[in-house]
Each structure stands twice: as structure tokens, then as C-alpha cells.
Amino acid sequence: MTRDDEFFGHLEGYLDDHEGSTPLPESLRDAIRAQLPSIQQRPAWWPARRLPHMNHAMRVALASAAVVAVALIGISIFRGPNLGPPEPVGPTPTPVPLPEGVLDAGTYVSNPFEAPNDALRFTFNVPDGWAGDGGDIFLATGVEGPDGAAILFTMVTGLFSDPCDADYFGTPDVVVGPTVDDLASALAEQTAYEATTPVDVTVGGYSGKRVDVQLPSDDNPDDRFSQGSRFGELCRDGGYFLWDGSIYAQGPDNRWHLWILDVDGVRVVIQGQDFPGTSAQDQAELQDIVESIRIDP
Question: Are residues 231 and 163 in the same domain?
Fold first, then answer.
């Protein structure tokens, strides 16, 4: 069968399949049928059939119909067999300012910083079972150990070499430069807690580094952590603080996941925190929230 025959076969098949529903006018469809030669298998050496003579108007009509048919056939051929029609594109959900209290699943927005960085805007998706508090997001069941989780937006200017001897409102004794690498390296070099080697990351279209920090356990030989009913309560300022303005450790074995980003020259830290006892589902949802973040500087 020649390529011409294949084309006419597709065209005739299309007219058969869409009888009564083809977008072509009925008169034009009938005229096309009348002009189609019969398609038969033949040896390769047979001369190709030619369309019988037709007037100019009919040639134009048939050519126009052929264009439509080729387009429709092409769509059916090149559309993958497992792909349906394109998904309808609905309106983008309008982000809701992050409120305090338990959240419905949805898209929220937060401006967590004070001037001069109060224009920094974070938009993110939150599933059921989470709550908001100012600029922070946390499990509705709580952030504390042994199974809590939370996400915070913060900025870091320096570190305390001894987080248990830290003054929450004091000046950190570890000077940290202004770049992403400066902070990532300073965290990795501390000896009061364990920190991973920094790795490259991108969040919300902005690049940076990720560092995971493992905070002390109850069995830490320093008795400041083993006494009392609250982890770190015997520390200088009633908590274990890594930097000025940071939250304190929320319990033994607290893990902090730090995404350190350069947002148009402003160093921003997205802090996820959980525990070894945090459920796999809650850990996955924490990661999903971070991956959904969009940043408007």
C-alpha cells in the first residue's frame, strides 16, 4: 500500500468512525466520500492510483477536508495511549494569611520577619493535622518530644558555642559571616551537637545549603540535661539555644533540619524540627510543606 493509499485509508476510516458527528458539513463529507478511490492491497509494482479528474472547487474542498482529517488523525496518533484529555486548568487558590490555631488543609501565606525584611513572603501548602502560630507551622498534637514536629522561618546572625550557657537575648560568641556557606560551615564545625556536612539544595527557586543538626539526648553526661522534668531547664536561660532568638530544644534527641537560603542577598533559614519518634507520615508531610514553599522577596 502506498503512502497515498494509507492517507485515504485514514481519511475514509475517520469519516466512518465519525459518521453523524464529524465536524465537516454533510454535503462536503458526502462529496469527499464520492471522490475517494477504493483502497486495496496490491503488489508493490502496481502503478499508484490517481484521483479521477475533478473540478477546482471540489479539489479545494477535498484539500480542506484533508487538512482537518490529518490534524484529527495526527492528534489521535501522537496522543499517548495512557493519556486522557488535558486536565482542566482551574483558578489558582488564593493563599490565606496563616492564622493561629488548627488549620484546614489549604494554601497559606506568611510574612514572618520584621522590618527591614517584612516584605519577604512565604506561600506553602499545609495538610490536615497541622496548626499555625504567627509565622510558624507545627503539628496540632504539638512540637515537643518524643514525636512532635514543626517548621519555622528564622534568621541567624551568630551561634552560641555552648547552647546551654546561652543568653537568649545575648550576643552569640561564635561570629558568623553573612553568606549561606558561612553559616553552613559554622554549624558543621560546632562540637556541642552533631551536624551533617552541608549539601546543596533549592527551595522556592532559591539555592542554598541544608544542614541537619542532632541535639543532645537525656543520657548526655552533662547533668544539666539529665536532671529535672524538662529537657534543658537547668541551662542558664532555661533552655538549650543554638543562636540568639532561636527556639530552645523541644526535648531530648530533637532534630533540626536547616535549609539555609540566599533570597536576593538576604540569608533566610527554614527550620524543620522533629524527633526519632515522629511518625513517618508526619515527617513526610513536613518535607512536603517545605517542598511546596514559594518565596516572594
Answer: yes
